[in-house]
Design a protein that fits this description.
Blueprint (H helix, E strand, L loop, with lengths): L1 H18 L5 E7 L4 E10 L2 E9 L10 E7 L10 E4 L5 E9 L5 E8 L5 E6 L6 E4 L9 E2 L3 E3 L2 E8 L9 E8 L7 E9 L5 E10 L2 E8 L7 E5 L7 E4 L11 E5 L4 E8 L4 E8 H6 L8 E5 L9 E8 L2 E9 L4 E8 L1
Antiparallel strand pairs: 1-25, 2-3, 3-4, 4-5, 6-7, 7-8, 8-9, 10-12, 11-12, 12-13, 13-14, 15-16, 16-17, 17-18, 19-20, 20-21, 21-22, 23-24, 24-25
Length: about 350
Amino acid sequence: MIKKLLVALVLAFCFLLTACSPAGTDVYTVEDAPGYNCWPMIQPVGNRLVCIYTVGKDHNTAEKGRGAYARYSDDGAKSWSERILIDANPGYGTSSIGKGTDAEGNALFWIRRMPADPRMALYRTGDGKTFELLSTPALDPNPMQITDIFHTPEGLECLWFSDDYSDDKDNKSWGVLVSRDNGRHWEQRVIEKDLPKKDWPTEPSVVVLGDGLLLAIARSEMPGGHQFQLISHDWGKTWQKTTTNISDVLQSTPSLIYDKDKGLIYNYYYQRGAGLLKVRTAPVEAILADGNAWPEPVVLAEGGRERPYDSGNANAVAMKSRHYITYYSGDPVNCRVLVAAVR
């Protein structure tokens, strides 16, 4: 009874918090050249924002010759540098899939190469201008994607997931990668395998809460599916998986920011189809107690609606007094990379 009353009070607080939260959003363009510019990742290096993305002719992850590029901003995303080439090859196409930092604060970016073997490539930059190929791990199972990097006492960690997206095969898996040498080598751990599509958490975002506690939110590949919630109490060795009350996503990627001082968790995501960039904000204790305690979302910006899957995803980062969320918006052959700066 006391627990139910506590949850009810927290939910009421969440509603008031959301209702009183002003959007306060400025949207800036990173890339709008002709072509399908998409799948961006954003990460600060010092006071500089670095955004990487890929450039191709249409919405095709395996389009050969699709290159990965970067731009950087020194004025809070208002203006961006000239395009910088990171990875391009006529034999494969690239997708930018994850980001983070190493132990020295350099920015790290995961890039997927398809078709290629090894499939994954990790790049490092200390200034946002020059990029060093740091690692091309050979992994089994071979991930479809590796997601954002976080830090634990073991070293650098990130989650991955693997499969062929089929509806009729229970062959989906996910797990953890760990690097003890600042990103040069990676140990792969499988958390779950032989999953049906409905039970498979993809494109997760993780926040570190301390004392072994990690919270992740992942997307569902099922139409109308709810975001998954993953909790670890041992720095990622084992996980508990539940679902949340968030279904207005349509297979679009979540991105979390944890404000330790305020005790708040921010869940940014793009609602495909409706073309809306959204955030749900809640006390972290409420979400740990009940994954269905997320309040109603706040709409931050609008994007493309022509075809649901040609716009979407969100990748967020905090820097100084703002959150920066990058996403892409457009149609099958022309798509822009954007950044929403939220006060």
